[in-house]
Design a protein that fits this description.
This protein has 138 residues and is α+β, with helices and mostly antiparallel strands. It contains two helices and five strands, in the order αβββαββ.
């Protein structure tokens, strides 16, 4: 076969919902705490960050209580990051941004211990250059 793409395994991105009563993001996923929803499917929910770096800053959460990237089952990683990619494009278009900054904190700097991805619209000269990490030589 010429020019054929490799066959990908048919993995269903399915996970049983698990909620933690004291988790803010679980409460948002269940509709107990209001949010400004941007996107939702069976696996994830995207809403505007209540303390955005810039207008359009979104958070993608998985609907089940998982705390870190390492906690995501292999069966959903692809679907989660397909949603991240789709939202990155949508945020760029909707906010007329030049790009996006995508970030995941694992425990350190994770303000809510529930897996989430920051999708932040970016523009040249927006003030975030060097904002996050001091650079050092090895």
């Amino acid at each position: 076969m010429k020019n054929s793409a490799p066959v990908q395994p048919n993995v269903q991105p399915n996970i049983q919902p698990l909620f933690r009563g004291d988790c803010l993001f679980c409460k948002i996923a269940r509709g107990i705490v209001p949010s400004f929803k941007v996107f939702e499917d069976d696996l994830s929910l995207v809403f505007l960050d209540h303390r955005p770096l810039f207008a359009g800053h979104c958070l993608l959460i998985v609907k089940s209580h998982l705390e870190t990237l390492e906690d995501l089952p292999d069966s959903i990683v692809g679907a989660v990051f397909s949603n991240v990619r789709m939202l990155s494009r949508a945020v760029m278009r909707g906010m007329q941004a030049e790009g996006t900054f995508i970030a995941v904190n694992n425990r350190v700097s994770q303000s809510v211990p529930h897996f989430h991805v920051h999708i932040v619209p970016r523009r040249k000269g927006d003030g975030l250059k060097g904002f996050f990490w001091p650079r050092r030589k090895y």
